[in-house]
Amino acid sequence: MNTNPNSFTNGKIVVSYNPKICSHSDVCCRGLAEVFRATVIPWIDLDAASTLEIMRQVKKCPSGALTFCYSDSFELVK
Question: Could you list the residue range(s) of the whole structural domain that residue 20 is in?
Fold first, then answer.
């Protein structure tokens, strides 16, 4: 999977960030500060929480600047 500098993966999901539409509400940082770190580069660390926690937090992004999709290498267990 091709990623851009604003895409991050943990092997299960890919989280993308679009700074052009971000409202800077800090919902991500306040909700999951160990993953979304405003003062560190790279600012997203997907190894700092479970995939489910990250997906739940990304869904709370009010502007839609954060999105996720399943990684090509991850097989969804049914």
Answer: 7-70
